[in-house]
Specification:
It contains 12 helices and 8 strands. The chain is an alpha/beta fold. Helix 2 packs parallel to helix 3 and helix 4 runs parallel beside helix 6.
């Protein structure tokens, strides 16, 4: 499956953990079945929301492989494979391909702050070496490097580079890439609060944190947006707006893991250096869950 055929609500799935920090594969199965039943259009495994930074290589590939096996072809699986070392990102991309992922999501190298030329060489080296559709990921708030639109469009010429997850907080940036990019180059929103606007502007989907807790509503909103139904899209997105806000009250995935635990779907565990949601934020997240109908009435 080509990545540019993957559209809609694409959940940036959390990685459930046992109390001792080991991966909870039973919990992972529970989440995947829930998403398939709710109509989620694709699953992103072991991205930032999946705590990729604290999973070692073997765990990382094992979670991708388990996600592919559990999804069983019912929804596409996009594997998170980014790293700030090109050699490491290459190894993760090869592992994702071996695990059976449909595509991979590769973030701009963080901390070492490559130049625009460095970004081009990094991504082209991976795309040249690994025959798996690649989605670029630009999130300067996390990485301290911003991939310029012209760099993105240059990379879009590579046959294995098929899309970008844009998380700059700018709908204008997304629209610029949509308008100037090849017709078969997909732009995905990496900001939940801009997902509806991105899709209404010609984007192909939203790689979403909110979809973790409201998968059905997110899928319905994405379907309406991709169909060009602005009124329905905006109505559904208004119900989701408190979640778009509150799930980022502290560093992602701290709030969304608390929310899923509150919903009874996973345990509360995060790996250090992430810590549980501060008490002061819990009422706001719970209220947002209630507004979106995510909690069963008492």
């Amino acid at each position: 499956m080509a990545a540019n055929t993957i559209t809609g609500s694409m959940v940036a799935l959390v990685t459930p953990l046992h109390d001792d920090g080991a991966v909870d594969y039973v919990g992972l199965k529970r989440l995947i079945e829930w998403h398939v039943d709710a109509g989620t259009h694709a699953i992103v495994a072991v991205g930032t929301t999946g705590e990729s930074a604290t999973l070692d290589y073997e765990e990382h590939i094992a979670v991708i492989r388990a996600t592919v096996d559990l999804a069983a072809g019912r929804v596409p699986v996009i594997a998170g494979t980014g790293a700030n070392s090109t050699r490491e990102a290459l190894a993760l991309a090869r592992g994702a391909r071996s695990a059976g992922a449909d595509a991979h999501l590769s973030v701009t190298p963080y901390y070492n702050k490559p130049t625009q030329e460095g970004l081009k060489q990094h991504f082209r080296a991976i795309a040249d070496a690994v025959d798996l559709p690649m989605i670029l990921y630009n999130v300067p708030g996390r990485t301290a490097v911003d991939m310029a639109p012209d760099t993105t469009l240059s990379l879009a010429e590579h046959p294995h580079i098929v899309g970008i997850k844009e998380a700059t907080g700018s709908i204008e940036r997304m629209r610029d890439i949509i308008q100037r990019g090849p017709d078969d180059f997909a732009v995905y929103s990496g900001e939940d609060n801009l997902g509806a606007a991105c899709m209404l502007s010609g984007g192909k989907g939203s790689i979403s944190v909110t979809a973790n807790v409201a998968p059905r509503l997110m899928a319905q909103m994405a379907e309406a947006a991709l169909a060009g139904d602005q009124a329905t899209t905006e109505s559904l997105d208004a119900r989701l707006a408190p979640l778009h806000r509150e799930l980022f009250c502290q560093t992602n995935p701290i709030p969304v893991k608390w929310a899923l635990h509150r919903m009874g779907l996973i345990g509360p565990t995060l790996r250090l250096p992430l810590t549980p949601l501060d008490d002061v934020y819990q009422a706001g997240v719970e209220e947002a869950l209630n507004e979106a109908g995510c909690l069963d009435p008492d």
